[in-house]
Amino acid sequence: MSVFVFGGNGFVGSAIIRKLVESGVPCVGVSRRASDIAPWHVADAMDPSTYPDMSGARAVVVSMGTPPLPFVDYETQRAANGASNVRVLEAAQALGVRTVLVNATMPRWAPSGYRDGKLDAEKAATGVVLKPSAIYGTRYHNGIPIPLHFLAPVSWVFRLPIAGKLCELAPGLFEGALVPPVPVSKVAKAAFDACVTDDFRPAVLGPHDILSVLP
Hints:
Blueprint: E1 3-6, H1 11-22, E2 27-31, E3 40-42, E4 59-62, H2 74-94, E5 99-102, H3 112-124, E6 128-130, E7 135-141, E8 144-148, H4 152-158, H5 161-169, H6 171-174, E9 182-183, H7 184-196, E10 203-205, H8 207-211
Parallel strand pairs: 1-2, 1-4, 2-3, 4-5, 5-6, 6-10, 7-9
Antiparallel strand pairs: 7-8
Helix pairs in contact: 1-7, 2-3
């Protein structure tokens, strides 16, 4: 009973796979490009005919998308952050497999293609939805660790009461923006817990919920 991780080559997806491998949970990475951190299946998320056989899987994790860049056109961002995720979720859910979607908490003024895509994916999800804000930690490029911990102090500041007060005063400006960044290890652990728990139930976990996940 393997866990299939779509987007396993990404920052978050690779962290989830590493957590599964370290814990001895069978897993398969799925993306356009293979990696050597786990067994792999090369597939195009937009083309279900390329998916691996997921019947009987323990869980399917969906961790795909593009950054919220203002110069990327609307349709491209919406498809990358929405349609690709929706197709995987629907394929897994049709098989009765539990799903874990890594989505996003974002401000109202995020680029509309990015925002609409993330909302499309969340609406399609029937399992656990993780909604971190900015994510920091160690990214790996060709096996080389690249530390990205500069957001850790920002996370501490955004947990102060003043951040919540500002959101109340100007929600259109600050809501979804002044939320604490989360370490990639916490996102990976939250996804791992959702994949292996015996007491699985649908849930939406925001940044504060993810930060509270036990190591």
